[in-house]
Amino acid sequence: MEVSNITTVTAFVLLGLSNNPQIQGVLFVLFLVIYLLTLVGNLQVLLVISTDSHLHTPMYFFLGHLSFLDAFYSSIIVPKLLENLLSKWKIISPLECFTQISLVILAGGTEACLLAVMAYDWYQAVCHPLLYVVAMNRKVCTGLVGACCAIGTGTGLANTILLAQQHFCGPNLIHSFACEFPSLLLLASSDPYISITSILTTMVVLGLGNFVLLLGSYTCIIMTALEINSATSRSKIFSTCSSHILVVTIFYGSGIFRYVTPASGSALEQVLSVQYSVVTPLLNPLIYSLKNQEVKAALRRVLARKPRLTI
């Protein structure tokens, strides 16, 4: 019977953003406020969409799921970040670490697909308005959301399972505040070729495929909008497009840079990680709410409702 001399890492250490206790205290308050605002903002959008009948359309059906994803995504990262800011020993078990990575990829992959679906929905509404009700009925919308979730889940599990096959024999220091695929891959003691190929394939197929769909949809939308004589209709179309394009730019810009470029633990990587995992879920409901007159009107209607006293 052959006995292996390989010692497997039993825990990872998250080095976090700072070792200074005073700075950690400030960061804890800052990230706690951002997290609470993120939950309130996204849950508020969900509440308004679910309770206001004017928003029971495919566009807001998808927006509601995007808000849920943002709240879910933030909850994967921020609670552990807050815990570590108050802890002396910033330890995370391999199981918890791999679970966090899997959920991050799941949420990111699902959101990438959902953003493409939202662009396709707006393309149908603008370019084929007479067929829109048929093309984007409830069954189709539910199926598209289900497909987004299935793709996100599949990519999350596949990449995480392949990463878990690597040997981690030390060191066990993660130069980040969360378990992320690139940071953990740096610690692999075995050849990471398969894992690198897997994540790059995911980025190319999922990212590029959805980006092509986004680009095609918005090219058609803009061309159609320019042919419309009504200034009001054009303004509404461009307002919705600008909100979506801003969200897509933030999501793809930070995500691609973080996962395509080699990990080094630099300050820029930390800033990008904070931006896409902590700040972006807060910005999305603000972008859609502040630039969308229908959402603002629905929010005013919800807030104006008086509770009825029942006996």
Describe this entry's structure for a reader.
With 311 residues, the chain is mainly alpha-helical. 74% of the residues lie in helices and 2% in strands. It is built from 10 helices and 3 strands; from the N terminus they run βααβαααβααααα. It has helices spanning 21-51, 58-86, 94-127, 132-135, 138-164, 181-185, 193-226, 231-260, 267-291, 293-304; strands at residues 12-14, 91-92, 173-174. A 3-stranded mixed beta sheet has the order 2-1-3. α8 packs antiparallel against α9 (267-291). The radius of gyration is 22 Å and the shape is globular. 35% of the residues are buried.
Q: pLDDT below 50 for ≥5 consecutive residues: which ranges?
A: 1-5
Helix content: over 70%
Order of helices and strands: EHHEHHHEHHHHH
Summarize the main sheet.
3 strands, mixed
> What count of helical segments does DSSP give?
10
Shape: globular
How are the strands of the largest sheet arranged? Answer: 2-1-3
Query: Nearest-angstrom radius of gyration?
Result: 22 Å
Q: Compute the average pLDDT.
A: 85
- Bin the strand percentage: under 5%
Tell how many strands the DSSP assignment holds. Answer: 3
Q: Could you give the distance between the termini?
A: 77 Å
Structural class: mainly alpha
Give the gist of this structure.
This protein is mostly helical and 311 residues long.
Features:
10 helices, three-stranded mixed sheet, 311 residues, mainly alpha, single chain
